[in-house]
Amino acid sequence: MCGIVGYTGSAPVAPLLIEGLKRLEYRGYDSAGIAVQEGDQLQVVHRKGKVATLAHTVDHFDFKGTCGIGHTRWATHGKPSEANAHPHTSCDGRIAVVHNGIIENFADLREELQSEGHTFSSETDTEVVAHLVERAYNGNLVEALREAAAQLVGAYGLAVTCANEPGVIAVTRKDSPIIVGKSENGAYVASDVIAMIDATRDVVVLGDGEMAKLTADAVEYFDAEGNPLSPKITHIDWDLDAAEKGGYSDFMMKEIHEQPRVIRDTLAGRLVDGALKIDELDMSAEELNLVDRVYVIACGTSYHAGLIAKNLIEGWARIPCEVETASEFRYRNPIITPTTLCVAVSQSGETADTLAAIRDAKVKGAQVFGITNVVGSPVARESDGVIYTKANKEIAVASTKSFLGQVVSLTLLAMLLAQVKGRMRMNQIRMLFRELADTAGQVEAILADTYSVDKAAEACVNAHSALFIGRGMGSAISKEGALKLKEISYLHAESYPAGEMKHGPIALLDEGFPVIAIATQSPIYDKVVSNLQEARARGALIVAVATEGDEEIQQHADHVIYIPKVRDAFSPITATVPLQLLARRIAILRGCDVDQPRNLAKSVTVE
Ligand code: F6R
Description:
Bound molecules: fructose -6-phosphate
Strand content: 15-25%
Structural class: alpha/beta
Helix content: 25-40%
């Protein structure tokens, strides 16, 4: 949450900061600001609202400076306002700070600083950092930041600049990402590589407690004690295209259409000589064979991928599997032994609750395995092994392609566990793998014809609420469908296992109430159809996602969205796609911004 960016070099900094902030806007978009070194002063501009509003204001300043920092905010302490927008400055206005994270002890620090005469101009937790650096400053910005950071409790990615040190930016982090890069034209810092990828693909992912001093010609790295560090360079191999819409009207649509590629890339190289290969797990077949309990820990959409994995891991490998939201898992006392495998699923790899949960699981002795989309992210670094989902950068706040990447990765993991447990023969593995690979083409077919999705969207657009139902895999899929709809269209949506309707939710139904049912071919198809009939008898408007060739379903539904026939185990891959399209279409018809829904941010780095 929140995006920070900084540059020092030979080029005018303001346009670079604005471009970087636009690319980081997925991390928060309620206010934005920049601080630029102009002559021997710092010039700070903030605006409430999106980066475009800031950009418009910055156009009226004739900034000449070549060193500065910027921020796009997702409010935690203090409402979105101009005063609360970063950068925040010291009393004398010569030090400016941008921050991603939360300072938990800010109230005590603020009181202490105020008693010493520091005056505050915002309600944010961040402002204490500007005053702490000011108090510690003795001609060396890096040292002052080190001293300030040592007093902070919480999570932070910080970039600081000072009018007394032309061309210098000091950075540090704890539990919030900081990426540093260097090109011929200067040095860059950002919360995400996407802000600098057109300047450099070789970056340094700063570790917790580490610091860097950026100048136009060099970047120096230090550990928390100030000793010089040789940084590990990470090469980024995805394209800048990921940050562009590529001809689509929004990122969400572009990312939905990338899903066939994500499936293919996630599977590439995984079947070797007829056996599954996931070397990154870093566990031998013998160690895996000992696993007797699996926890999948995740939040939001990633949690839904976990619900799908539970069906597969228990069904194929016969290992008990529990799926838990990380925010609950971290505060309970789950049963963990050395033969417990914890699988942390996180697109961003930086979700605060997921990270805290895996740290706790490791302390209790579990093996931790990460499934993430971001190379070098905290989840990747802190797990014993990691699978990357190969979705490439996901910009739209609502996850689509990363979800499919997670489902495919978890399906591979379930097959691997079944393989090592001797519950699946090699020929079965090969057959399943082929069918899994075929889903890429099947998703392409779904994307090629969206007529029935669009018609169903038109029928639902004026509803006040919608119910998503399904059984088995369909129940997990319906949860993701409901989340997509509510987060981007602001239409209330709820998901229920179809069999639970009679235990309460059916009372909601009246004439025209949309019920979206996952009614694909499965061993419990007939049961879902019975539940549809019950809903229809109460006047509900039925939208059914069904398998091609199923003529019967037309008698029970007002709108049928057909998808290709796949085995039930792979239905989440195909059946989720029309639900993503449906949610997007309804949101567009309701005039919503599908890429940047209100109140949300792509990375949830606070509790
Ligand atoms: C919904 C969505 C969120 C995320 C959740 C976890 O579309 O994207 O629900 O899935 O915030 O984020 P990650 O996967 O980054 O841990």
